[in-house]
Amino acid sequence: MHVAHLSLVDFRSYASVELPLEAGVTALVGRNGQGKTNLVEAVGYLATQGSHRVAGDAPLVRSGASRAVVRGQVMRDGRALLVELEINPGKANRARVNRAPVPRPRDALGILRTVVFAPEDLALVKGDPSDRRHFLDDLLVARTPRLAGVRADYDRVLKQRNALLKTAGLSRRSGGPDLRTLDVWDTHLSNAGGELLAARLGLVEELRPLVEKAYATVAMGDGRSVSVGVEYQSSLGGEIELVPDAAGLAAVLGAALGGVRSEELDRGITLVGPHRDELVLKLADLPARGYASHGESWSLALALRLGSYDLLCADGGEPVLILDDVFAELDADRRDRLAEFVAPAEQVLVTAAVPADVPEILAGGRVDVLNGEVRRVR
Fold first, then answer.
1. ∠ at Cα 155 (233, 95), nearest 5°?
2. Cα–Cα nearest to 189, from 143, 236, 222
3. What is the pLDDT at residue 288?
4. Which residues contact 2 (CB under 8 A, 6 or more apart)?
5. Chain center to CA of 157
6. Which of the 8 DSSP states describes residue 6?
7. Three-state secondary structure string covering 280-317
8. How confident is the model at residue 179 (pLDDT cuts 50, 70, 90)?
9. Where are the domains of the chain?
């Protein structure tokens, strides 16, 4: 799988750009602020319909423009597929595949898959639990695109339920609320939450050994052997691992919601569910967040991405690897080990401020980016 051509209209700093790409390694070289990261961000957006840099779509549209278009020709299994995404902040986005509209943008998910390494990855170790939940859910959708709908349903129901909890809590003082509507939202939240939770638990079981293996590879120059822990911590408690399926987890979640309803009405928020869960990362049985050194944190963040790559490869369809200014953040040993790992991939896109930031083993095509203009050097 690789991207053969990228076309942008009013995306980030680009009014218009056409960028032919090839399989193998391509380095996008340019000083900060020249627009190189915008190009790989667009490739990632084609795959995930989200950015690794910002939470919303509005910053992706060029200042003064009302919409942006990201278009990519994807080569997969010997076939060329044209994916086009139209970004409309404040309105519904649109998608086309081979120039034909699809009912929903998420119907275009899965055509292209990417794994992105970026300085922001330190948040996977040092950041809030939401960063690690997003990591899991993004990987779930990359493997099984239909889960994008489950994720969206859960978020929508959670928002509605929280609004109802606030209203019902306030009305307690005036005779008590009618909670029948809340019962309906409990059922919806339990069903979507049970399916999302089952998918996350299965993912962590598959991912754990791959992360352990990858950490041993990228951290082997640290001079000591450190055990790695990757555990899913649910707001429902550890016994959920004994529940065999999504329906059973939905029943457990529904019962838990009933048990905390009074407290939820007092606080106006939903207190249990996948939105309150955590992916716990450990080094030598200690929480990585707060205990890991800077180097250990980088090794663990890289291991999560490398494990994701291995998992997606095992599913079939090798993802495009994107390394966004990551080599400048790493010491020499980690640079070399990461470069050796990614070099055989079908397509690797690397951004760097200067050519020297790209390890020799990743020598390949080069595109210079200057003032929003792209020029292929080799």
1. 120
2. 236
3. 93
4. 21, 22, 23, 74, 75, 320, 346, 347
5. 21
6. E
7. EEEECCEEHHHHCCHHHHHHHHHHHHHHHHHHHHHHCC
8. confident
9. 1-113+318-378
At 323-348, the pLDDT tens digits run: 999 988 888 888 888 999 999 999 99
Contact (Cβ atoms closer than 8 angstroms) between residue 8 and residue 42: yes
How far apart CA 283 and CA 265 sit, in angstroms, is 38
Structure tokens at 154: 């859960």
Reported as a single tens digit per residue, the pLDDT across 293-308 is 888 999 999 999 999 9
Asked if 41 and 52 touch (Cβ cutoff 8 Å), the reply is: yes
For 118, list phi and psi in degrees, rounded to 5.
-155, 160
Of residues 66, 72, 92, the one with CA closest to residue 8: 72
| Residue 346: partners with Cβ closer than 8 Å, 6 or more residues away | 1, 2, 23, 24, 318, 320
What separation, in Å, do the N-terminal and C-terminal C-alpha atoms of the chain show?
Answer: 21
Q: Which helix (H) or strand (E) holds 7?
A: strand 2-11
CB neighbour class for 20 (10 Å; exposed up to 12, middle 13-18, buried from 19): middle
CATH class of the 1-113+318-378 domain in this structure: alpha beta
Residue with tokens 């911590």: 233
Nearest alpha-carbon partner for 232 in 247, 214, 213, 249: 249
312 and 115 in contact (C-beta within 8 Å)? yes
